[in-house]
Design brief:
Blueprint (H helix, E strand, L loop, with lengths): L1 E7 L11 E7 L6 E4 H14 L3 E3 L2 H11 L4 H9 L3 E3 H12 L2 E2 L2 E3 L5 E2 L6 H9 L27 H24 L6 H17 L2 E2 L1 H24 L3 E5 L4 E5 L1 H12 L14 H5 L4 H16 L2 H9 L5 E3 L8 E3 L15 E2 L3 E7 L2 H14 L3 H7 L4 H9 L4 H9 L3 H16 L6 H10 L4 H6 L9 E5 L2 E8 H17 L3 H14 L4 E2 L6 E2 L4 H29 L10 E5 L3 E6 L3 H20 L9 E6 L9 E2 L5 E4 L4
Parallel strand pairs: 1-4, 4-5, 22-24
Antiparallel strand pairs: 1-2, 2-3, 6-7, 7-8, 9-14, 10-11, 12-13, 15-21, 15-22, 16-17, 18-19, 20-21, 23-24
Length: 648
């Protein structure tokens, strides 16, 4: 095993693979070896050609810089990942934390209970955990200054400039050695590290925004905020505050709370018991001025995306993927993860050629059905999916005691009542598999602005219904509509009737949790997740299975993006990966985009079917001239997939 590391110019906007200054490596003996750029690149090429086991800390970054210098070496790097010859100590440490239950809702803890503030491992935290030392970065005088030494001969470098890369290489090797001996979930590390490399290469490519759209959006948002402020000042919800030299408008919180209390009678409250004035409470109040205040808070949030859009308009926006959450899913740091669907934020992003996106159809339900088959040997959910039923329509038809065919036809015709019932069924299918109770279900829908009872009554009266602060002898965090809870209870009962394998599944998971001390192994990959409750375990089995299948698809796709010149994907770039959606930038014409869309869907299915072999897997592509959640598949007169354009 050889540890490798590059010191580079600083990362800058649009430059996630900056020029290399020096290379260091260690085979466990001190001091590590340091070489300047050309010699270092040559040395890494030699190690890759020899098939050495390489270890690094965020090694995908090092390979990205290496490939920027030597693009033709992509196949060598790919082969190393393909053969399991890459150990990323940060990913391995995260997998160990997942096994112990130390990665919780984005918070990361070391075995001694200390919380890692960044929520992600660094080499310093790895050294602390595995080697018991706090001195990983003690010689860091040149940590952010290597650009100063770019053209300076190595023999003229200050001692401290050599110490830092030598320390990094040796510490990485020592950590890698300990991980090889003691870490949990090591069997899943090669695939996770491999996928991290795929996502990093997509991040290096980045996203670009249309500067005209960005400027227009910024102007429109500023105007809308100013107008709302004026109206709220006139209505008395704002008042002039600040100082004489720096006056500003401030909310009249006392008056706002009074209006909320008047609107609700029994108003929603915060965890501390105070009257809630969050955006959802304001918008749902029925008071037009409170609704305007809620609208203003939405605009205030949108403003936070403007700096990233401006960056993408002047240079490419490099995303920051996080390869591993506790469930096995990925996430992004920054604006990409929670990009609003409204107000034209996404639409500012445009491709070099055309965007080709595809998302899996109800893939978590397919994953759940596969878990049922694997653990119980039966699944009515799997039978329904394999028969081609729309499972939300299937449950919805049961909710109103009509035939599936009638329900489906009315849904396709745009019947709004049927649309609401299907939405209720969809919420049930996605919400109840993790043992969620009716009160928690109502609260979860309330957080996203949905009312359970309105799906069924459609009378706008949810906000005037009686509310309760206690349900089944348990205090609720917020008062909930009694009618909503009653409807959720009936919805849950219908859900369990429609999918009778759910209760045996929950029983099996609960027994497994007792047997394995709150730990459970993921199907296929064997990745262990610890520190679980039974509901979390019920969720993680199918969520993790889907995450693993999607990552397999990402690896298949990336290989063709860079290596298979006969593939319609060759030369395209990965720009987005959510757990059920993959987006590519295809830099050619619509004919190429059509072929790319077909191949993308094929590889998405192939990757997922390795993990979900017994349940039907579908994915639907769309070609777009900009990124939009409004985009739908369009077809020309010949039945060919066509480009959805924003003007449409």
């Amino acid at each position: 095993m050889i540890a490798i590391d590059f010191e580079t110019h600083m990362i800058a906007p649009g430059t996630l693979a900056p020029p290399i200054v020096c290379y260091s490596e260690s085979d466990g003996r001190a001091p590590g070896r340091v070489l300047q750029r050309l010699a270092g690149v040559s040395r890494l090429t030699e190690l890759l050609e020899r098939g050495e086991l390489l270890t690094g800390a965020n090694i995908a970054y090092d390979f990205g810089c290496y490939l920027k210098a030597v693009p033709r070496a992509f196949e060598l790097v790919w082969k190393a990942y393909e053969q399991g010859k890459v150990l990323d100590v940060l990913i391995a440490s995260t997998l160990d934390a997942v096994a112990d239950g130390r990665l919780v809702d984005g918070s990361l803890f070391l075995p001694d209970g200390k919380r890692v503030q960044s929520g992600r491992y660094s080499l310093a935290t790895c050294v602390q955990q595995w080697l018991g030392r706090d001195d990983a970065k003690v010689n860091d005088a040149y940590r952010q200054r290597y650009v100063e030494l770019d053209e300076v001969p190595l023999e003229q470098w200050p001692r401290e400039a050599l110490d830092y890369p030598q320390d990094d290489a040796l510490n990485t090797w020592l950590v890698g050695k300990e991980i090889s001996l003691r870490a949990q979930n090591l069997g899943d590390q090669p695939n996770q590290a491999w996928t991290a490399f795929c996502l990093h290469m997509g991040a290096v490519h980045g996203l670009k925004a249309n500067p005209i759209k960005v400027a227009k959006l910024e102007h429109e948002i500023a105007d809308a905020r100013e107008q709302l402020r004026k109206e709220l000042l006139s209505a008395g919800l704002f008042r002039t505050g600040g100082t004489r030299k720096a006056p500003k408008l401030v909310k009249d919180t006392k008056k706002i709370k009074a209006l909320v209390q008047e609107a609700y009678g029994t108003p929603p409250v915060t965890a501390t018991g105070a009257t809630a004035i969050d955006r959802e409470t304001l918008v749902s109040s029925g008071n037009p001025n409170l609704a305007k205040l809620g609208e203003l808070s939405a605009f205030d949030k949108i403003v936070t995306y403007i700096p990233a859009l401006k960056e993408a308009a002047s240079t490419r926006l490099n995303t920051r993927p996080n390869i591993l959450l506790a469930t096995g899913r990925t996430s992004y740091e920054g604006v990409i993860q929670l990009m609003p669907k409204s107000h034209g934020i996404r639409e500012c992003f445009e491709p070099d050629g055309l965007f080709v996106f595809a998302d899996y159809a109800a893939i978590e339900m397919a994953g759940l059905a596969q878990v049922h088959l694997s653990l119980l040997g039966r699944s009515s959910l799997a039978e329904a999916i394999n028969a081609g039923y729309d499972i939300h329509c299937l449950l919805g038809s049961q909710l109103i005691n009509t035939s599936y065919e009638d329900f489906r036809a009315r849904h396709k015709a745009g019947d709004p009542e049927i649309g609401d019932i299907r939405q209720a069924a969809k919420a049930a299918n996605f919400g109840f598999p993790g043992m969620m109770g009716e009160a928690t279900f109502v609260a979860s829908k309330k957080k996203v602005g949905a009312s359970v009872c309105e799906w069924f009554y459609r009378d706008g009266a949810c906000k005037v219904q009686s509310r309760t602060r206690v349900y089944k002898d348990r205090a609720l965090d917020v008062p909930l509509c009694v009618r909503c809870i009653r409807q959720a209870k009936q919805l849950r009962e219908n859900y369990l009737t429609k999918w009778p394998e759910m209760k045996p599944y929950w029983d099996k998971v609960t027994l497994a949790m007792r047997k394995w001390n709150d730990r459970i192994p993921q199907l296929v990959s064997g990745r262990i997740r610890g520190g679980l409750t039974a509901p979390a375990a019920a969720n993680t089995l199918f969520q993790g299975l889907v995450a693993d299948g999607a990552k397999e698809a990402i690896r298949l796709i990336t290989k063709e993006l860079y290596l298979d010149q006969s593939s319609p994907l060759f030369g395209a770039r990965l720009v987005y990966f959510a757990h059920d959606e993959i987006g590519l930038d295809v830099p050619r014409n619509v004919e190429c985009a059509r072929a790319a869309a077909k191949r993308l869907v094929g590889l998405m299915k192939s990757g997922m079917q390795k993990y979900i072999p017994d349940v039907r897997v579908d994915a639907e592509p769309v070609i777009m001239d900009c990124w939009s959640k409004k985009a739908k598949p369009l077809f020309n007169e010949q039945g060919e997939l066509d480009v959805w354009r924003l003007k449409q």
